[in-house]
Amino acid sequence: MEFTINREIFKKVPNLKVGIIVIGNADNTADIGDFVEVEYAEIAGKASAKFDGVELAEYTVIKKWREVYRGFGEKKARSSIESLIRRVVSGKGLYSINPLVDIYNLASLKFELPCGGEDTDAMDAGLELTFADGGEIFIPLGGTLEERPNAGEIIYKSGNAVVCRNFNYRESDATKLTADTKNAVIVFEEISGGEDNLKSALKWTAGKVTELLGAEITANTILDETHSGLTW
Question: Which pLDDT belongs to residue 114?
Answer without folding.
Answer: 98
